[in-house]
Amino acid sequence: MNLRELITDAIKYPISDTRKFLIFCALIILMSLSTIVPSYGVKNNTLTIILTLVTLIVSFVVLGYLVEIIKGGTEGSKILPDFDYVKQFVIGIKAMILEIIYFIIPLIIVIIVASASGLFTSFTKMVYASIDAIANNATTASMIMAAIPKSTINTFTNALTVTLIVAVILFIIFSLMSFTALVRFAKSGSGTEGLRFKEILKDMSKIGLLKIIVTLIVIYLIALVLSAVIGIIGLIPYIGVFIGIFVGLPFIMLFTFRAIGLLYADA
């Protein structure tokens, strides 16, 4: 499937079954109640706890449903999957754990790089030097900076640069891997499949790294445009916000995950 066919399919997909689309919209509304209700000035601790729990539970169901949409895309299914709330709740929890793992790994590496390059040590020295300068009547930012040894500033600047470069590279790599991992999980139902790094790299190689990157960029650009449209619709008095958030947002979510599933259909 070429990029044009993929995008066309993904745009049509959310409304392939109106009833299921509206159910998904209702789930998004439920998931947002913990934010909506307080915005109307309703303040009740018990209600807040209940709505928070509802948000958490529904969030896992929504994530599980989106994972099944990815699976449907890889299998060539043309309609929205059926709702099985318990099953999708469990899938959502597993998917969240998988995503957390792909966040933690680069985070740990970045912390190690930051520590090894002297970022934390030099930052601590800068803080102490600033405190001493203030204690010695330094009243301006230039006076405080002048009190910090240049060697410490240089070490901090170099360490920060190295750390940021490593962080950006790792973010890109692990983001691409996490997409593939989520697809492997969606297809197999096994969380361990999403951690088979060797197989993940094989899947990415089979599809083509350039194709993955270009397709994801196009997907997110379209999602950005749709978000801008939602923002404009939100300006309509009374019903604008409702239509924009509780119809537009679900549409974007379904579109995005459908497109990801189609992208990895040949993996």
Question: What features would you highlight for this structure?
Answer:
267 residues; mainly alpha; 81% helix; globular
Arithmetic mean pLDDT? 89
Largest β sheet strand count, sense and barrel closure: none
User: Structural class, from secondary structure content?
Assistant: mainly alpha
Q: Number of helical runs?
A: 10
What fraction of residues sit in β-strands? Answer: under 5%
Shape: globular
Write the SSE topology:
Blueprint: H1 3-12, H2 18-39, H3 45-75, H4 85-116, H5 119-135, H6 141-146, H7 150-188, H8 197-207, H9 209-233, H10 240-263
Helix pairs in contact: 1-10, 2-3, 2-10, 3-4, 3-7, 3-10, 4-7, 5-7, 7-8, 9-10
Q: How would you explain this protein's 3D organization?
A:
The protein has 267 residues and is an all-alpha fold. The chain has one domain (9-263). 81% of the residues lie in helices and 0% in strands. The protein has helices spanning 3-12, 18-39, 45-75, 85-116, 119-135, 141-146, 150-188, 197-207, 209-233, 240-263. It is globular and about 70 Å long. The two termini are 12 Å apart. 22% of the residues are buried. The model has no long low-confidence stretch (mean pLDDT 89).
How would you sum up this structure in a few lines?
This protein has 267 residues and is mainly α.
